[in-house]
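Input (ATP-sensitive inward rectifier potassium channel 8):
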Amino acid sequence: MLARKSIIPEEYALPALASRAPRKPVFRDRVNKARFIAKNGACNLAHKNIREQGRFLQDVFTTLVDLKWRFTLVIFTMTFLCSWLLFAMAWWLVAFAHGDLDLARQSDVEQCVTKVKSFTSAFLFSIEVQVTIGFGNRMITEQCPIAITVLILQNIAGLIINAVMLGCIFMKTAQSHRRAETLIFSRQACIAVRNSRLCFMIRVGDLRKSMIINAAVRLQVVRKTTTPEGEVIPIHQIDIQSESAVASNSIFLLAPLIICHVIDKDSPLYDLSAMELQCSDLEIIVILEGVVETTGITTQARTSYVSEEIQWGHRFVPIVTEEEGVYSVDYSKFGNTVKVGTPGCSARELDEKPSILIQTMQKSELSHQNSLRKRNSMRRNNSIRKNNSMQRNNLSLAVPKVQFFTPEGGQNVAVT
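Output:
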């Protein structure tokens, strides 16, 4: 008997046919991972096992500015209290060394500081010297050169403490992220066709009338990648260009703008389709930088979009209208989107098969025309029903005929 491989050619065997059959991509469930940048712009990053803690003390001013307000106020209060107590001890020692605390000698010897008889009075004199209150009861005399030296040292120390603490509080109140609170981003991002190309779009806006000078927008894709050598990069940042970028990403942020990134062959989104995007673990970070017009301080606003926050086949609705010669912005529709016809394939497939885009646009146009016909027919039917109801109401409002009957059963008389 002949062998099976001599009867059935090998190229037509079941394993060979299965290997040549086109396979559908297998999509795995996306594993929920932590965001790198939160929606409010905060960095979701925890620093652990820092061995050289002394580096923070080398830049004390920045450390004080970065502290929370409750810690800053505690340090502010304790610094002044400690300085007052320290110099109060110095004034008490000066008075003790000179014999001013001896009640028997107070009438014979002129005191270094008048009216300093205890530590409490020395503490009050220390406060008066440092904050320059000067009530007039306690004052320094020329009897003790050491007292004059302590006075000079306390004045210098008080000026340094005031400068550092007031500068720290000023910097905390004028930090750049305070201005970023009025720079807003859309909650959702969109991917749709614009100018015959797939584009990734977000909307940014400024709630204040004072502008951001030299505003620039940067987009980055953050994902976990593995190099050909097997190195795992947990946070791989890839810069992507926006449509308005020529030499830089500068924008004129006068009204809310739609930042558009064209998904071309240089984009990390080039090979992603609608289904693959939902299963990917990428995160798109948006960074808006500029100079505050009123203060001249550089500010930065950040946000990010994960795959669940990217709407495929949607675009933003217009929110800027002209009313009585003034452009009006309706911020209630800032994040509203509308569904548009968009192919679900990747940008690579669109470049290889442009007919997909043409067919999608034709289907979208047909569906739009059908919806218009249905809408017009519904309006026509509603108008007909309204006219019929108005006619019935008019008939019901007409004056009815009234018949009178004679008691003898005579002829009926009708009166209109």
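The first helix runs from residue 4 to 7.
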